[in-house]
């Protein structure tokens, strides 16, 4: 054995922090007599699986929708400013002070007054009204469904510059044809989001909060 070469690990002694003889041999061969050679290395590059801004804000719109009491349709909206700061969220529901128990949630009834459509505020309207900033000029709205004409009016009047949506399933209906006409005339841009992920799973168990992965330092 050449002078100055690290002695191979004989297996008779255990290097602290190395769980197996193979790890200990690797530590000895590298010239380290401690756990530094066996310790997990932190990732050298940033995590690749993080959400894009678009996916993040659309996910918040979907999460907000879970607050809706509507048994048949749950829609949420999220508004962000030009610096990607969240300035409002909203979901479809009855106006403040109007009972969720007394007003109807039906979609079809003998009288229009016995359906929800006479009373419900859409998510887009509630998001605009809930804003925590003086102005929405230049802001973006994220919403699952392309806005109807009534919501389009409010969006335009609020100063929102762009609408990002997932579905335009009512594209050919008059209310939505009118929306596009209004947006085009007012200079409000709109685009359909093609998300980079189809699911965002939330784990709300206490032991899942800010837990660091032993091997790579990832938050799980």
From TrEMBL:
Record domain CMP/dCMP-type deaminase: where? 52-190
| Example GO molecular function | zinc ion binding
Provide the protein name: dCMP deaminase
PROSITE patterns per record: CYT_DCMP_DEAMINASES_1 (PS00903), CYT_DCMP_DEAMINASES_2 (PS51747)
User: Which Gene3D superfamilies does the entry mention?
Assistant: Cytidine Deaminase, domain 2
Organism placement in taxonomy: Eukaryota, Sar, Stramenopiles, Bigyra, Opalozoa
Family, according to the entry, reads as follows:
Belongs to the cytidine and deoxycytidylate deaminase family.
E.C. no: 3.5.4.12
Q: What InterPro entries does the entry give? A: APOBEC/CMP_deaminase_Zn-bd, CMP_dCMP_dom, Cytidine_deaminase-like, dCMP_deaminase-rel, Deoxycytidylate_deaminase_dom
Asked whether the UniProt record includes Zinc among its keywords, one would answer yes
- Please provide the Gene Ontology terms (biological process) for this protein: nucleotide biosynthetic process
């Amino acid at each position: 054995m050449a002078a100055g070469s690290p002695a191979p690990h004989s297996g008779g002694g255990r290097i602290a922090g190395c769980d197996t003889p193979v790890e200990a041999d690797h530590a000895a061969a590298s010239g380290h007599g401690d756990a530094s050679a066996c310790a997990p290395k932190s990732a050298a590059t940033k995590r690749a699986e993080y959400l894009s801004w678009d996916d993040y804000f659309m996910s918040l719109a979907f999460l907000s929708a879970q607050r809706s009491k509507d048994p048949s349709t749950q829609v949420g909206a999220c508004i962000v400013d030009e610096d990607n700061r969240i300035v409002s969220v909203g979901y479809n529901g009855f106006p403040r002070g109007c009972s969720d128990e007394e007003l109807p949630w039906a979609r079809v009834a003998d009288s229009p007054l016995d359906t929800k459509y006479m009373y419900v505020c859409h998510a887009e309207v509630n998001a605009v009204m809930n804003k925590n900033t003086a102005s929405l000029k230049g802001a973006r709205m994220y919403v699952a469904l392309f806005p109807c004409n009534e919501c389009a009016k409010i969006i335009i009047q609020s100063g929102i510059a762009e609408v990002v949506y997932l579905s335009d399933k009512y594209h050919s209906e008059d209310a939505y044809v009118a929306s596009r006409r209004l947006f085009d005339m007012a200079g409000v841009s709109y685009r359909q989001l093609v998300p980079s992920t189809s699911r965002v799973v939330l784990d709300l168990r206490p032991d899942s909060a800010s837990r660091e992965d032993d091997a790579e330092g990832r938050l799980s």
